[in-house]
Amino acid sequence: MVELFRDFWWLMFPMFGMLMAVIHALKDNARQDAILRDARTQLERKP
Amino acid sequence: MSFTDLFVSFWWLIFPVFGMGMGFWGMISSERRSARVLDLIKSYVDQGKEPPAELLKLATSDEELVVNSPTGRRQNNAWSFVVFAALAAGFGVGYYFVRAEDYAFAFLIVAVVMAVMAVGALFIVLTSRANDK
């Protein structure tokens, strides 16, 4: 296990990048869902 | 074959698998969101109301807005140049450190490809700037 880490420690950086990409995508999705939810609420509100 | 051997042989598969997964997820969620947005806009129009600006912005995604404006397109290409230049430099340095190994050619190939892509992106930035004047 120690050898594996010694050989592949640099994978931490692309892994971190991938994790950040996933978090960014999730946050973006949540923002867009919120916009849609607000628009639907606004639409269903009585004039 | 133990897990360690498997990992040592196929660690590089992490990146294409991740890329394919993100691409597939992005495609599915984009498709679903577009359908929901259009449905909502239709409901607004049916009721004679003005759809919110944010909703209309969602209908034409941010990426399309950036790509369709000359400034955004130039910024995109400039960013591509920075990314490709950084990758070329990174793989070039990698090649320098492992140049004595058998697999060093792989670093060199990637560095050259990235450098060509960087030069291409720079060329597009410069020519688009000249065309906009």
Most extensive interface: A-B, 21 and 24 residues
Strand residue percentage of chain B? under 5%
Largest sheet of chain A: none
Overall pLDDT of chain B: 85
Say what oligomer this is. Answer: heterodimer
- Count the beta strands of chain B: 0
Query: What is the C-alpha radius of gyration of chain B, as a whole number of Å?
Result: 22 Å
Percent of residues in β-strands of chain A: under 5%
Distance between the termini of chain A: 65 Å
Measured as a percent range, the helix fraction of chain B is over 70%
Q: What is the overall number of helices of chain A?
A: 2
SSE pattern of chain B, N- to C-terminal? HHHHHH
* Series of secondary-structure elements of chain A, N-terminal to C-terminal: HH
N- to C-terminal distance of chain B:
62 Å
Poorly predicted segments of chain A: none
Number of helices of chain B: 6
Task: Give the overall form of chain A.
Answer: rod-shaped
Biggest beta sheet attributes of chain B: none
Task: Please give a structural write-up.
With 47 residues, chain A is mostly helical. Chain A is built from 2 helices and no strands. The radius of gyration of chain A is 20 Å and the shape is rod-shaped. The N and C termini of chain A lie far apart (65 Å). The relative contact order of chain A is 0.07. Chain B has 133 residues and is mainly α. Chain B has 2 domains: 1-59; 61-133. The A-B interface holds A 1, 4, 7-8, 11, 14-15, 18, 21-22, 25, 29, 32, 35-36, 38-40, 42-43, 47 and B 4, 7-8, 11, 14-15, 18, 22, 25-26, 29, 33, 36-37, 40, 43-44, 47, 49, 51-52, 54-55, 58.
List the topology elements:
The complex is a heterodimer of chains A (47) and B (133).
Chain A: H1 2-8, H2 12-44
Chain B: H1 3-10, H2 14-46, H3 53-59, H4 62-68, H5 70-98, H6 104-132
